[in-house]
Design the sequence.
């Protein structure tokens, strides 16, 4: 990581947990950095909240912090991160975007995605928890990667179900035209086996003045946990150029 101490605010993915990031706590703290693993579900524990509103609330929590603020977002968390970088109250000095999507570009695509996510919401809230988790893991994009223990998330199923509606890719604003407004350093990571999201990153990074795309060999969508050492090394190499 960068030479100066930073606070890493890490955002987990869909059906994920803040604890997913504790794998990297030791390495980051040894380098002098602070890990803030954000529980995204708490933003939905009272009422519906859009991606943009969630990003604004997240940004407000970093106000007044003395260390450099580095935002790390994986998948769904990466989409929230992009909104946070584009919000008026953005406090971020740099960002790492992992396996994320800037947004669908047609209403037909958005409508189809909202329908799919509505189905996931129903399965999450009303179905058997283990059955829901099994079906989630069987998605092609997640094949080949292990799912860490999600038993504790049963207590968050209401918020997770709501996230499929409020934070659906189909409900997200199309951020593609806004990406040039992100002028801070950005490292965009994708897995070698994740061709769809690697193509997205290849298109997205040239739109941002200080963005760099790096592909992690031998990994898929969940690249930080599939190839943890390569993930840490990629961040360390990139951060050497940060000021």
Sequence:
């Amino acid at each position: 990581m960068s030479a100066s101490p930073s606070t890493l605010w890490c955002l987990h993915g869909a059906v994920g947990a803040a604890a997913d990031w504790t794998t990297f706590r030791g390495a980051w703290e040894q380098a002098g950095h602070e890990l803030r693993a954000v529980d995204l579900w708490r933003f939905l524990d009272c009422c519906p909240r859009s991606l943009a509103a969630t990003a604004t609330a997240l940004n407000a929590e970093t106000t007044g912090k003395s260390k450099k603020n580095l935002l790390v977002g994986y998948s769904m968390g990466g989409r929230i991160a992009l909104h946070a970088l584009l919000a008026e109250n953005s406090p971020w000095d740099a960002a790492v975007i992992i396996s994320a999507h800037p947004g669908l570009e047609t209403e037909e695509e958005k409508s189809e995605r909202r329908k799919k996510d509505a189905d996931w919401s129903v399965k999450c809230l009303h179905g058997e928890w283990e059955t829901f988790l099994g079906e989630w893991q069987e998605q092609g994009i997640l094949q080949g990667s292990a799912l860490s223990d999600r038993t504790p998330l049963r207590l968050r199923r209401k918020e997770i179900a709501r996230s499929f509606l409020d934070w659906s890719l189909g409900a997200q604003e199309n951020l593609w035209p806004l990406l040039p407004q992100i002028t801070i350093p950005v490292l965009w990571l994708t897995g070698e086996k994740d061709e769809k999201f690697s193509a997205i990153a290849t298109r997205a990074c040239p739109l941002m003045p200080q963005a760099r795309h790096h592909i992690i060999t031998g990994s898929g969508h969940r690249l930080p946990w599939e190839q943890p050492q390569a993930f840490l090394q990629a961040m360390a190499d990139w951060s050497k150029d940060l000021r």
